[in-house]
Amino acid sequence: MDIIARAGLHASILRHHKRHRRTQQQVDESSSSSSSSAAAAAGHKPPPTSASVRGLPNSSLCCYLNSLIQSYASLNNSLTRRLCYLTKPENTQRPLVTALLRVVGYVNGDGGVDGDRGPPRDALQVVRGFLLERGFWSFTQQDVHEAHTLILDEIDGYFREAYLQECRAHSTRTLLQAATSSDSSSPREEPTPSTGPPSDSQPPDDHLLQMSPLPPPPIPLKTGLLRKTRWCQRCGCLARCKYEEMGDVLLPLPYYAPPGAGGGGGGGWGSSSFPVSLVGLMAGEWRARVLEDVACARCTCDDIGRELRERMGLFQEPSSAGATSEQDIPHPPFSTSLALLPCVWHLLCLRRTLKALLAFMAPFAATQQNQCYPATALPDIEAIQHALRAIIASHLQTTGDSSLIASLSQIASREIKTSQVEETALEKPPEMLGVLIQRVNVQGGFGAGSLAVKNDRPVAFPLVMDLPLSGSGQGASSGGESVGQSAARCAMPVSRSWHSSNAGAVEIDPQEPASAPPERVSPCPSPCVPRQPPHCRYTMAAVMCHSGSATAGHYSAYRRKRQRGCHSLLEIIGKHMPTPPAAAAGAGAYDDGAFVYASDLLVRDVPSAEVAAAQSSAYFLFYERH
């Protein structure tokens, strides 16, 4: 009886919830109609709706996925081109690619893509199933950046595989055409009769074995290259040049403690009126840093060469040619010559070893101060020390003098540590730049008793942003000195300039240290002032906003419409465009009808000022290269 009664109670509760939901919907519809009629009577217009962008239903608490798809649809076909490339008949058909194409086409309002049949719920279910297979549970509060990473990494993997497959097929066709043309142009020779059985070991034609090299696969959509250079403040030379892949930019959001608030930084969490600039946060992550006690290969080579030259001076003979024959050594009396033979042999071996070491160190010796050397001309310190030990072992293996080998090995094993300036710049900007503002912090560790706190501090973001590129391709400045050299010689970091279109009116906390070092005028003369590096322009595509706490809330998005000059989805599918369309005139400028606000099924046109005002809820930003 208890089970039956409990089941009946549960059924009655469900009926009550359905009745309450139906009543609430009727009340909402009547209130919306009355408010619209009242607004019309008062002369006010209702909130505008977008006719070119469609919304998506929020089923199974997937507002994060709806906002992410709306952001993908705003990328002006940079992602859609890759999806359409994967749907070509010769490529392997992927359910995720087909589902994303259908949903993006429906959202953008392309005619013929699901038309007026309503949202493609089956395609949305395919995308949600893909996330569930990867361990992404969609029925709880989730991080949208995690879903974005899973989807784009999968698409980039598909695109890389299809691209390499097409390159191999193209190489095979090229080789077959070359073989056919060579056979038709060359005279045919009569085959010589063979008395033996056919041999399988006979190699085929050489031109069939010489496969043409495949082009490198394309860089993923959200991946760029960062160039990190280190300049020694002692010798002023390039100490290190390293390239790293760049994905989405993760920016920790600092808290603000008002003056007089105790507890360090716990005073003004989530209620600060001092916004921080997104440009300042990015410049703070990529600012020039001074590293202490770092081994410099140039200074180490100079010190080792100086010590070897001093050793050579101890064994210099009056001979002008510097020959190391026995005639150059003074002959002692015959009674002591036999006793001095081991010393003479050690002397000859030592001079040959020192000359070999100096000859090896000659390309690495700095001839003048503050001279710029290419990064490939100077190997690592470990490689230099390994080569020096090999030379010492090969030249002194016949002497058997362990003390002499130990003294030279000690010279070759030394390291000179100096202060170096590390600079970070964009070498190859990504086609799509994702910026994640890390608003959620975990207090008390990640175990029991931990607390997730959301930081609602406003972040002012620009609609148009210029990022500095690396000046490596532009060469040195007019005075023959690069940015890193002038920074090393002046013993101070040089910050690159960051520009934005609407970040000048941002109020910055006067008590908080600036995220980026201020611009300082170099004390070098005018010929040594570094030239301004080039910039790469990015325009805003979408802003994903999160309202609520760290454990619950709602995702929405401000997204850009398809700009003028960009092709529709059907045109891309018909043409399979391998290259991006031409940029529209005035694509960097936004008018009041360029953005829409999408919150599940609610889609309305918004002015650009409303997009820039979403500072406290902005969570994940999409920029596209102009």
UniProtKB/TrEMBL annotation:
Keyword Cell membrane: no
Gene3D superfamilies attached to this UniProt entry: Cysteine proteinases (3.90.70.10)
Annotated region (Disordered), positions in chain: 16-53, 175-215
Reactions the enzyme catalyzes: Thiol-dependent hydrolysis of ester, thioester, amide, peptide and isopeptide bonds formed by the C-terminal Gly of ubiquitin (a 76-residue protein attached to proteins as an intracellular targeting signal)
Record keyword Plastid present: no
One MF term in the entry's GO annotations: cysteine-type deubiquitinase activity
Positions with biased composition (Low complexity): 24-42
GO CC aspect terms: cytosol; nucleus
Coiled coil feature spans: none
Its EC number(s): 3.4.19.12
Group of enzyme by EC: hydrolase
Keywords, alphabetical: Hydrolase, Protease, Thiol protease, Ubl conjugation pathway
Domain USP: 54-626
Alphabetical GO biological process terms: protein deubiquitination; proteolysis
Alphabetical list of InterPro entries matching this protein: Papain-like_cys_pep_sf (IPR038765), Peptidase_C19 (IPR050164), Peptidase_C19_UCH (IPR001394), USP (IPR028889)
Similarity annotation: Belongs to the peptidase C19 family.
PANTHER family hit by this protein: UBIQUITIN CARBOXYL-TERMINAL HYDROLASE (PTHR24006), UBIQUITIN CARBOXYL-TERMINAL HYDROLASE 30 (PTHR24006:SF888)
Name by which UniProt lists this protein: ubiquitinyl hydrolase 1
Organism (species): Vitrella brassicaformis (strain CCMP3155)
